[in-house]
Write a structure and sequence with these properties.
Blueprint lengths: L1 H15 L7 E4 L2 E7 L3 E8 L6 E10 L4 E26 L7 E24 L5 E12 L2 E8 L3 E2 L2
Parallel strand pairs: 1-8
Antiparallel strand pairs: 2-3, 3-4, 4-5, 5-6, 5-7, 7-8, 7-9
Amino acid sequence: MKKILLGLLSLAIIGSLSLTVHAEEIEVPGYCEYTETEQESIAHWYGIARGTYLMEGICGIKDAGTGKVSVSGTTSAYKVCDTVKVGVYLDESSDGGKTFGQIGSYYFSENNTTSCHGSKIGISVKSGWCYMARGGHSVTKGSTTETTTTHTGVLRAS
């Protein structure tokens, strides 16, 4: 009788517990290459861990004429993923690039694909001030999310 009661008590305890599933988030190792001109700055991140999902992340900022800039971002995966995302953040500096504050954010997402690209063109800014773009890149496959970040060099708006 004790064994039966212990068994029923065990089942009752197990039944009252809730099982929580946590998604695994991984910061993927990689390296970044920069392309910079007076008109444009691009950061291109490459993943170095084969067998992962996240392949590359790119963010860029471009002078779009007097008092305007454009920003863009791309995230690519090695395999089709459930969700591929890129967020691009526009930062501004009034002190020549010593300190920055975020003034804009733009989010793009695609499902069941290997890449996502997005851009925002003709953003009004202050001529002569410094700007840079930061990218947040992520891919999700099942319960695994892989992420990385990028940031461009400093661009002085015309």
